[in-house]
Amino acid sequence: MDFETISSSFKFGGQLGYASAISGGLSGGAVTKLMVHPGGKFTPGLVVFSLLSYLGQGSWNMVERWHLSNQGKKESRSILQRMADSKWIPLRSLSDNDFKHILNEKILSMEVEIALLDDKIQSLEDERAAVAGQKGEQSSQDGRPKAC
């Protein structure tokens, strides 16, 4: 027996939801009466599980209605691909060429940073050599040997 046969015998959201609420409520009330320490209450379990069953059945009906309306449309992309293309998810799928392009940009930026650091190192070495040259001149002018 498929869903279309069942849904045609009941109103789509009404009687299925009520039947689920009654059966879930009775089951939940019985379980809470038996599971809770002596003197467990039937009514809170009945109310809570009735609501949960009704909401669950309503959600199922909504998903099933959506599924039936989209049954003729074949989606060739997987769920992960559709999620990656969604504007609500901060991830995106990349083709191989896009990925190569991003990697080349990152390599280029790293090479630029390395070149800047090399220039900085060279300027620091030049400053160190200039300072060492000044100290050497000062010690030769004083006539005293330089202390290390």
What does this structure look like?
- There is one protein chain.
- By secondary structure, the protein is mostly helical.
- The protein folds into two domains: 3-72, no CATH class; 94-140.
- The chain is 75% helix and 0% strand.
- It has five helices and no strands.
- Helix 2 runs antiparallel to helix 3.
- The protein is elongated.
- The N and C termini lie far apart (97 Å).
- The model has no long low-confidence stretch (mean pLDDT 82).
- Residues 128-148 are annotated as: Disordered.
Low-confidence stretches: none
C-alpha-based Rg, rounded: 38 Å
Strand count, sense and barrel status of the largest sheet are: none
Secondary structure class reads: mainly alpha
Helical amount: over 70%
- Assign an overall shape: elongated
Give the domain tally.
2
Count of DSSP helices? 5
Strand content range? under 5%
> Total strand count, please?
0
Distance between the first and last residues' Cα: 97 Å
Overall pLDDT metric: 82
What order do the helices and strands follow?
Answer: HHHHH
